[in-house]
């Protein structure tokens, strides 16, 4: 990701964030959607305020009025990209006529593998978190926080909160590992086999609580 001078913080440039008026907030959301579209299509490589400004049809100075610099804009765009994916996940689950936890996870998996939903970008975001946790740590922490409520909702409603939390963490970690494996090796057969094992484990877990 670029760290050029055009990525300077508002404190250095003299610009300020939007005060949060309805009009200003609508403008900020529109800019964020456009930058998110660019991020989904082109990834994180060479991301900068100037590139984001071109994608949004504005100037980097306008972006600095609404966002606290390049890192803040990147974080918000990644969060927005995840929100879109989570919306697709929830739609896939809602389309099931009925379903066990295992069936819901099976329905979720193809959505998560959809390359057009920004999968590689989100994988790159996790990579940045590992490369420079001091600067990009929120990209990783935000991921777990965003996905956890949806995963908790997949669990049977009569389970205890503790049990839901344990299973949701397992699903999150395993599916994230599958996605990284698929992206880095292209080994679809191995990932498919792992998913079968995960579904079988979830079936046993749900049966134990019946």
UniProtKB/TrEMBL annotation:
Key words, A-Z: DNA-binding
Protein origin, superkingdom: Bacteria
InterPro entries: Homeodomain-like_sf, HTH_TetR
Region of interest called Disordered, as start-end residue ranges on this chain: 1-27
Gene3D superfamilies: Tetracycline Repressor, domain 2 (1.10.357.10)
Domain HTH tetR-type: 25-85
DNA-binding region (UniProt annotation): 48-67
Name of the protein this chain belongs to: TetR/AcrR family transcriptional regulator
